Amino acid sequence: MNLSVNHKLMMLLIVFWFTPLHCFATDEVSSDKTIFEKYIPAPYAMELKNRFRIDHKVDQVTLIVQRGYGSSPVVVVLPDGSKWYSSRHPSSVKWVDGITGDIISIVNPTPGPWQLLGDVLPGSKIEKVSEIDIEVEPLPQPLFQGEQLKVVAKLTADDLTMRMPGLEFMVEWTSKFTSQHLPGDDNFATGTIIVGAYKDNGEGLDEQPDDGIFTGSKNLDQPTGHYTLSVTARNNIFEREFTMPFKLSKQPVLVEMMPPAEDDIEQVWHLKINVDEGQVLLSQTHVQLELTGPAGLQIPVVLTEITSPEYLLPLPTVSEYGSYRVKGSVASTTIRGREILLNVPEMFFNLIEPPQPPPSEEEMAARAAKIAAMEEEVAKQDAIFWIITINSILFVLGIIGLIIWRKKQALAKALAAAELRIQQEEQNSGKKSSDESLDLDDIDLTLPDDKS
């Protein structure tokens, strides 16, 4: 395709690139010069020291600026001298600022010389690309429920991987499963599930930070059935999506807990392992489990060789009564040669203390005699208690009656003495009254005139 004819339709991506940390990489080993010459014609790349020129044929410009870690966003100086900031710019400009860089998208940019002010890393170069896209590793088929799966994705520009420190902080990745609602599938009633994201931070399954390879792990502990995978990379400037249909199949290796037989004195639990030889290779199927129990018990359970598709694995004998848990994984190889690692759902069992044997006739007789003796002793104690209680009550009542009787006697004597004293006083008062009456008769009550 002729570059001059399609120049008007091309998106211009200007990338400020620190030479030791390449923003773009290829799968084949080659020098930076070879990649650069293959990727961008020489007239479009030059050392400008934070300055660049946009001609009149460009409809859109996307600037990817790499700057010092933690530095402030750059200031964009337009050809007329006006300035744009990350917090103040026209509505037609989309700006994403991160810890280590900026992504700026400009529609219909003003032709002429532009400049960036800020802690832009030295050795920057200007590159033009036609499109930003995402490249997502497809999910393998068959894909099994509970499988531990590592998947990768990357941002690309003209099929070359974009690489810049801190790029993951400026792009949000989301991975979702959407049920196709097919009758008969376990996921028929399931909607859309967010199952993970992609990171380029050197943690978890990601091998190296800031290498442009975003790594994710899917949560495959979901109902089986037909889904559509949707992987989205977005920010304020662009949004790209990758979709693919797939089927989540049941695990080809099933591990079940089997209780001990009723006549098993040692109470040994077993694991029943069923291997679907139509899906995986029996000779390359290995089991790695761990038995945990009371008092911090941890016992590894390893099975490196399975001799039959239906295998019964005895668990280690345990003696502590309580709750136990078995968890782990199964490593195998599909019949198509893909190595897989499956999570085994956690299983639990309880070791219950067996019931005591029934007592013999002698023990029952001794127990009955003991109970009778205890009852007799209780009755004796009850009788003594009531005897003492009743006697105590009678004794107290007797004392109270004696006190009341003595008080009545004292009261009667006091009343008799009072009555006698009153009588004596009455007699004395009567005698005195008669003497006084005689004295009054002797008194001359006549007036002097009467005597004459």
Would you mind describing this structure in some detail?
With about 450 residues, the protein is of the alpha+beta class. The protein folds into 3 domains: about 5-130, Jelly Rolls (Sandwich); about 135-250, Macroglobulin (MG2) domain (Immunoglobulin-like), CATH 2.60.40; about 255-350, Immunoglobulins (Immunoglobulin-like). It is built from 3 helices and 25 strands. Strands 2, 10, 12, 13 and 16 form a 5-stranded antiparallel sheet that branches. Strands 11-18-17-14-15 form a 5-stranded mixed sheet, with no helix packed on it.
Number of helices: 3
Stretches where pLDDT falls below 50 for ≥5 residues? 1-48
**From the 3D coordinates, which CATH architecture of the largest domain would you assign?**
Sandwich
Please outline the major beta sheet.
5 strands, antiparallel
The CATH class label of the largest domain is Mainly Beta
- Radius of gyration, CA atoms, in whole angstroms: 53 Å
First-residue to last-residue Cα separation? 189 Å
**Number of extended strands:** 25
**Oligomer category:** single chain
Shape: elongated
Region (Disordered): 424-452
Signal peptide: 1-25
Keywords: Membrane, Signal, Transmembrane, Transmembrane helix
Biased composition (Basic and acidic residues): 424-435
How would you summarize this macromolecular structure in one to three sentences?
This protein has three helices and 25 strands. With 452 residues, the protein is α+β, with helices and mostly antiparallel strands.
